[in-house]
Specification:
27 helices, 22% strand, alpha+beta, rod-shaped, 27 strands, 5-stranded antiparallel sheet
Length: 874
């Protein structure tokens, strides 16, 4: 069926409509019958009119017969005309359509060819600019196409390589590999999967992915196409990725092993649930296997309060809020006991989940160490605070940064008043340059020697301190100074006293060394004076003898003062009531000080007794009274006070050298001119005096000092210029209740002696005068020059020898050894020792035992007679 516009012929013979014969028949009919058609058309036109009207008005009309014939012919003619016109139009239409179709086909072919050319151009442009290597080979293995990437690998243009084979382009081994691969692809007749190849290009190894496929042209020719991708970079990336993955794997293994081997507990938790725990974390909580804790809440291993607190911290972190990352908490052991633990917390993102990683440390040992350190620091602070030495620290600029309590005691300043202030502001101005130099040495890292610095107390007084400083180091750098200061004012005073005692000791040794010979001479002088004065012949000048005797007495007194000063004097201590001694001297002291000076006494009732030599104590009181008198040339007042006092370790008198204990205090005060520090420093030195020449020997106070010290006591002096002077004497109390005094028979005539006396003396003059004195009293005297001679006399003498009088120190055999030997020969014999040496020498000779009779040289005739009688009558 063929359709045309405005025409449709259903079930018409195709041959009738399409046969050329029909079309030619239509033309003949149209040409031969044209007149007839024209006539018929005219008749038809006339005939048609009635029908038209009938059709138009639907009113049939009756016609005659001849009209129908004309009408029929006319209609046939019209039909033929119409049919011819249609056929003619159809032919023309067909021809036009065919022409139009040919034009369209030409245009379409042109468009197809153009599109093909453009597509081909795009293909070539794409392939030439593609990094993909593309090629086509024929069945013989010759390249018939290759893009720019294919040619670039050989450094050629594509045109230069077409027609070549792999054996022309690659090494034989590689070309053979390519050939075998091509054959497999063609034999398979399908695309082969990508094959990796490693090729050498420009001396470097390149990695390729090769894809090959068969191509069959319409002509039946067999071709081979190929595409090659350079995967060298991918290989390198893959190798790097594999290395990175291997490294990550090793790191993960190492991390896992580290977590497992860590001595610190590690736990990972989410929303309070344990996801992971290492062995250390499990062990510290008393679990053998960490898996026992996985999935359990944190409250299972923490105290309830700390579990709630740590869970809240975790929520704060998840909300992005600030939360502590390091804190201490109480862990819960499996047995229910609490643990001191420390947590170090951080968050970690795993995928879309945020977990909390906590490192837990067992700090029980640290807590113990901290507690021990705290106690140690507390002990250190107590030690520092209780130290009697000032302990301090200085900054680099010399300012005080710390002080202990002793600083306040030494300086009188509160610590708060000096913290942050320069240390040198405390130092006496004269000592500042020296102090700064030593502190600078400490800041240079040196260890300066111990040095003395005078500090200014809050009261304005000066206190002497001894300093030890050392640099304070941190990380090898000097950051300050540490120092210890010791007050040595008392020590300096004691040292001065010690030096004074050394000088006194030296003079005492000198006096003791001279005393023996000097006492022997005085004994001779005194003895002969006594003999001459007893001579009643009147031949002698009595006045001259009396002057000689007074001079010898003064010499004896001077010698005894020297010995007392040097504590070499032999004392005869007895139990004394010092109040009775003071009262017994009132009259003597009043006469001694004169009428322009008032003497007052304040004596404490019921005082404890002391043990001392009464004569020596009286000598001390007289020396002090005379010293006070000389300090008041225009008159004044002297006050003597007694009291019982107790000296403890914290007393100022103890700091001045008085040992703790119970003492009887005798104070002698005056209202005189007083003394300055220079005079007080030399007050007890022998021969030191501020009096005019000829008005003092300088031995009065030195003698008093020596006597008191030899008696076990102490002497202190307090004096200021214009404020008078007070001497304090401290004598230790004793428990004895009996107070007595050495009883001496009154001087006068004694019964004459008749006994035999053995006199042993190495000094001829002394032996001669003693013999004369004893003979004048009626004694029979046997003489010997030394101990051995005395022993022979004792052995040879057949009668009784009643008494041995011997010098202590003699050559060959001393007095003690002689007495021991004679005691074996004559047990009933009695002994009397005499010596001009000091008490120390006698003690060394062992003659000061209980009951031993002793006579100190020089002695008078009466003293000798009384002592001999006393020993013989005992």
């Amino acid at each position: 069926m063929i359709s045309y516009p405005g025409f449709h012929a259903a079930k018409t013979s195709p041959w009738l409509l399409s046969c050329r014969g029909v079309r030619w028949l239509a033309c003949v009919l149209m040409g031969g019958l044209a007149p007839l058609v024209a006539q018929g058309a005219e008749v038809a036109a006339t005939s048609v009119q009635p029908f038209a009207g009938l059709y138009a008005f639907n009113e049939p009309e009756t016609t005659s017969g001849p009209s129908w014939i004309h009408w029929g012919l006319g209609s046939a003619a019209v039909a033929l005309i119409v049919l011819g016109a249609v056929l003619l139009w159809q032919e023309r239409f067909r021809r036009g359509q065919k022409h139009s179709l040919m034009q369209r086909e030409d245009a379409e072919q042109k468009r197809t060819e153009q599109a093909l050319a453009e597509s081909e151009a795009r293909f070539h442009a794409f392939m030439d600019h593609s990094p993909l290597v593309a090629f086509i080979k024929d069945a013989a293995g010759r390249y018939i196409y290759g893009n720019q990437a294919w040619a670039a690998q050989f450094g050629k243009k594509p045109a230069d390589l077409l027609g070549r084979t792999d054996f022309d382009l690659w090494p034989e081994e590689t070309a053979r590999l390519f050939r075998d691969s091509d054959a497999k692809t063609l034999a398979a007749g399908r695309v082969t999967e990508g094959v990796e190849m490693s090729l050498m290009a420009d001396g470097s190894v390149r990695h390729w992915m090769v894809l090959k496929f068969p191509i069959r042209e319409s002509s039946g020719r067999q071709l081979l196409g190929g595409a090659v991708v350079d995967i060298t970079l991918q290989k390198q990336v893959d190798a790097t990725l594999r290395a990175s993955e291997e490294k990550l794997r090793r790191h993960q293994e190492l991390l896992t092993a580290t977590f497992a081997a860590s001595r610190e507990g590690i736990v990972v938790e989410e929303n309070g649930q344990i996801l992971y725990a290492n062995q250390a974390y499990a062990s510290v909580h008393g679990y053998a296997d960490p898996e026992e804790l996985v999935g359990r809440p944190l409250s299972a291993v923490q105290s309830h309060e700390d579990a709630v607190r740590m869970l809240e911290y975790g929520r704060q972190r998840l909300r992005g809020e600030a939360a502590p990352t390091l804190y201490e908490f109480k862990g819960l052991h499996r047995d229910g006991s609490l643990l001191d633990l420390e947590a170090s917390v951080s968050t970690c993102q795993i995928g879309e989940t945020t977990v909390i990683v906590t490192v837990v440390r067992d700090i029980r040992e640290r807590k113990k160490a901290e507690e021990a350190l705290r106690q140690s620091e507390q002990r250190y602070r107590q030690l520092v605070e209780s130290a009697r030495d000032a302990i301090f620290s200085l900054s680099l600029d010399g300012k005080l940064t710390s002080l202990n309590h002793a600083f306040e005691t030494i300086t009188g300043w509160a610590r708060s008043e000096w913290l942050g202030k320069p240390f040198t502001d405390l130092v006496h101005p004269e000592d500042i340059p020296f102090t700064r130099d030593l502190l600078d040495r400490s800041l240079r890292g040196e260890q300066p020697p111990i040095f003395e610095v005078r500090l200014i107390r809050k009261s304005g007084e000066t206190v002497t301190t001894e300093y030890t400083t050392t640099p304070r180091m941190e990380d090898g750098q000097v950051v300050g100074i540490l120092g210890i200061a010791r007050e040595i004012t008392s020590r300096r005073r004691l040292e001065e006293q010690f030096h004074q005692a050394q000088k006194m000791e030296a003079i005492g040794h000198l006096a003791g060394g001279v005393a023996h010979d000097f006492n022997n001479l005085l004994t001779v002088i005194t003895g002969y004076c006594d003999l001459l004065l007893e001579d009643e012949s009147g031949f002698h000048d009595i006045a001259a003898l009396n002057e000689i005797q007074r001079a010898s007495q003064r010499a004896t007194s001077l010698t005894r003062q020297l010995l007392a000063f040097g504590r070499k004097q032999i004392l005869a201590p007895i139990v004394l009531d010092l109040n009775a001694v003071v009262r017994g001297m009132d009259t003597l002291l009043c006469r001694l000080i004169g009428e322009d000076i008032t003497l007052a006494t304040r004596l404490e009732a019921g005082m404890r007794p002391v043990k001392a030599d009464q004569g020596q104590i009286e000598q001390v009181l007289m020396n002090l009274a005379v010293n006070s008198r000389d300090a008041m040339p225009v008159g004044g007042k002297i006050t003597i006070e007694t009291a019982t006092v107790i000296i403890d370790a914290g007393s100022a008198r103890h700091d001045a050298g008085v040992r703790p204990g119970e003492y009887v205090r005798v104070a002698v005060s005056d209202t005189g001119c007083g003394m300055d520090e220079r005079v007080k420093a030399h007050l007890f030195e022998p021969f030191f005096t501020t009096k005019e020449v000829g008005k003092g020997t300088g031995l009065g106070l030195a003698t008093a000092h020596g006597i008191i010290q030899q008696s076990g006591g102490h002497v202190l002096v307090h004096s200021e210029v214009g404020q008078g002077t007070t001497f304090e004497i401290f004598l230790p109390c004793i428990q004895e209740a009996t107070v007595g005094r050495e009883i001496q028979e009154p001087l006068g005539s004694l019964p004459p002696g008749s006994e035999t006396v053995l006199l042993v003396e190495d000094e001829d003059a002394v032996r001669d005068i003693v013999r004369r004195l004893l003979s004048s009293d009626g004694y029979k005297v046997l003489e010997a020059r030394h101990g051995r001679e005395g022993l022979r006399v004792c052995e040879q003498y057949v009668d009784t020898i009643h008494l041995l009088i011997t010098d202590v120190v003699m050559p060959e055999m001393g007095g003690r050894e002689l007495a021991e030997q004679i005691a074996l020969l004559r047990p009933a014999m009695k002994f009397l020792y005499m010596s001009g040496y000091t008490d120390d020498a006698l003690v060394r000779q062992g003659v000061r035992s209980e009951g031993a009779a002793f006579l100190q040289k020089p002695f008078s005739l009466d003293m000798l007679a009384r002592k001999v009688r006393e020993v013989l009558d005992r």
